[in-house]
Amino acid sequence: MTAVQRALPRRWPLLRSGNLHGGWPSAFWFLLPALIGFVAFYLYPAIRGVYISFTDWNLIANEGDWVGTDNYDRLLDDSRVWDSLKVTIRYTVINIVSQTILAIGIAVLMDRLTKSVVIRGIILFPWLIPNVIVAMLWVWMLDGNLGIVNEFLGWFGVDPIRFFTDTDKVIPTLAGINTWRHMGYTALLIFAGLQTIPKNLYEAAALDGATERQMFFGITMPLLRPILALVLVITIVGSLQVFDTVYVATGGFGGQPGGPANASRVIYLYIYQNAFDFNQLGYAAAISVLLVVILLAVTFVQLKLLRAGESDLS
Amino acid sequence: MTAVADRIEQASRTFEPSARLRKLGIGRGTAWLILIVILIVSLFPFWWALRTGLSSNSDLFAGEQSLLPAGYTNDNFERVLGTASEAEILDSLGRQNTGSFDFWQSLKVSVIVATAITVGQVLFSGMAAYAFARLRFFGRDKLFFLFLSGLMVPPIFTLIPNLIFIKNLGWLNSYPGIIAPFFFMTPFAVFFLRQFFLGISREVEEAALLDGAGHFRTFFGIIVPMSAAPIATLAILTYITAWNEFLWPLVVARAPERQPLTVALGQFTAQQPGTSPDWSGLMAGTLLAALPIIVIFLVFGRRVVDSIGFSGIK
User: Fold this and answer.
1) Considering the domain boundaries, does residue A147 fall inside one?
2) Residue B132: which of B77, B187, B212 has the closest Cα?
3) Contact predicate A123/A106, CB 8 Å
4) Based on the structure, what is the number of domains in chain A?
5) Which end of chain B lies in a sparser environment, N or C, as judged by fewer CB atoms within 10 Å?
6) For chain B, what are the domain ranges?
7) pLDDT beneath 50: ranges in chain A
8) Residue A71 resides in a domain
9) A107 lies in a domain?
């Protein structure tokens, strides 16, 4: 009971009881639009997606018959599923390692040098640009013949690199592009985390003669752990779902999405191809169920491992 | 005594950022240099796109790598904007125009879609957030938790069922079809606004309620004006996200006249030939498609930058 309610005369029991705040009759109209959206576009499709994975749904006929676990049996035997998972994991590892290290570096540099909003804005800027545009900018800059990057590398005597047409290079290239787009965003998240570390801890450590290196690993990293854990969950879950950049960067200029030779066919793209190129929506739904299970497992394990909720501070 | 004082003096000097960095072996100058390189890396691709868009294709294919436009021309921008004649196109491309898109039509689609999504999502998510933050009704916390669990559903999982649903509604290639899944709510928007509403003092609100104002008048007359800043931030982030969306409009809007800029540009790229693609036209189109986001960021940059610490970490 709030102060206002307590101050009310006893003959107004309705208001005193807190019914002022509602019950379903008043909440209903506030919740209705969001409830419609949630049920129609989150809850119902999530349940229906599982159902579709047990059918041979065809988008042209727009119907499907129950086929039991056929799609799942097929999935276990489909080497392309596991190949695309391998490609996705390779992409994720390269992307996360480069992005996280760069972001921590940028965050620490900003923390020491400047709080300028303009500088933070410039670093964040690529994150706001659509993936499609980012992919096109880099396809041009990394072009094998005319790209500025190869020209630049040439100054140092490096032979032109076929960033998108070499099966070994295409995944590191795509990971590099997304690192460029996301490092500023990740750096700002870590930067926000750095602001929560009390400065007097560093002063005390400095008094005790701690070196910069000791302070980084003894104070900064442990206290940053809850934020790092969340940042890693966000970035890993995001990386496992990479699609736009791959689709546009490898699909243009006479190439096939996921090329060359399927070297960049990530799991999202394989799901997309099954659904929209091969018209096998049931099978595509089964692979996306697999992906959801993987994403949930990754999130759960990570949060456990990194004990995200706790900080060493408290 | 003087020894202790000296040590404190020394330690406090050590704590000055410049001294600490020097101790690490990096001078403040070097640290700034690294940061400036990162800023250049963040911005250079946009300059390069502008420079390329203002260059002539023939100079580009001659391998010109100057920092300023090579063979300065406005033709490419005119070609994208549709103000160039067939003869001019033939002249600047040296061949027929392979693949094109109607920039103005796609711009119109992008504006309509992003605006409708922003208005609907912010309004309806805000109403739901108010109910979760302020009203008391049976099952409130369970329902809120259910909404939040929507954050864990990866878009690919609901993509196929949502597409079937939209197809059954007869909404393929239509504005409602592109807009609907994002129109009513996102779990993030509800969560974001609820956090702010919880922080608003109840006193003013109670007074209004006791004066006989209904919940709707209280919400729109008191809560919304008091939360103008976070609502504006959410609206900007929602607009940018909607503008950048690629996969959903790609599958739902196959007809060119309903494709937003991201999808139209992606298709334009896919139609480019492997040899001598229209690089300057692509870069001009790319920049024009990113322009609205660039303008929004120039105007509201501080809000976006300041929101980052919040959006990733509670």
Assistant:
1) yes
2) B187
3) yes
4) 1
5) N
6) 104-271
7) 1, 11-19, 314
8) no
9) yes
Q: State how far Cα A184 lies from the chain centre.
A: 14
CATH topology of domain B104-271: MetI-like fold (1.10.3720)
d(CA A21, CA B1): 64
Contacts with A, B 180-209, CB within 8 Å:
180-181, 183-185, 187, 190, 202-203, 206-207, 209
Name the average pLDDT for chain A: 87
Nearest to B286 among A31, A136, A203 (CB): A136
Tell me the per-residue pLDDT of B284-310, one tens digit each, with 9 for 90 and over. Answer: 999 999 999 999 999 998 888 888 865
Residue with tokens 């004066």: B211
Banded pLDDT at B86 (limits 50, 70, 90): low
> A66 has which bridge partners?
A55
Phi-psi region of A137 (alpha: psi -120 to 50; beta: other; left: phi over 0): alpha
* Residue B101 half-sphere exposure toward CB, CA atoms < 13 A: 32
CATH number at residue A230: 1.10.3720.10
Token pair belonging to A294: 């993987």
Q: Alpha-carbon Rg of chain A, whole angstroms?
A: 26
The β-bridge partners of A63 are: A58
Binding-face residues of A in 247-306 toward B, CB within 8 A: 247-248, 251-255, 268, 271-272, 275-276, 281, 284-285, 288-289, 291-292, 295-296, 299
Chain B partners within 8 Å of A61 (Cβ): none
State whether the Cα torsion A50-A53-A54-A58 is positive or negative: positive
Query: Do B280 and B76 contact (CB within 8 A), yes or no?
Result: yes
Q: Is residue A47 part of a domain?
A: no
What are B283's two structure tokens? Answer: 């870069």
Residue that is written with structure tokens 């008094």 in the block: A207
Residues sharing a CB contact under 8 Å with residue A300, sequence separation 6 or more, in sequence order: none
- pLDDT exceeds 80 at position B97: no
Q: Interface pTM (ipTM) of the complex? A: 0.86
Tokens of B263: 């999808």
- Asked if the peptide bond before residue A260 counts as cis, ω within 30 degrees of 0, the response is yes
- pLDDT tens for B44-84 read 999 999 999 898 887 787 777 788 888 788 888 888 887 66
Residues B97 and B177: their CA atoms lie apart, in Å, by 31
Range of the domain at A258: 78-305
What amino acid occupies position A308? A
Whether A175 and A91 have beta carbons less than 8 Å apart is answered as yes
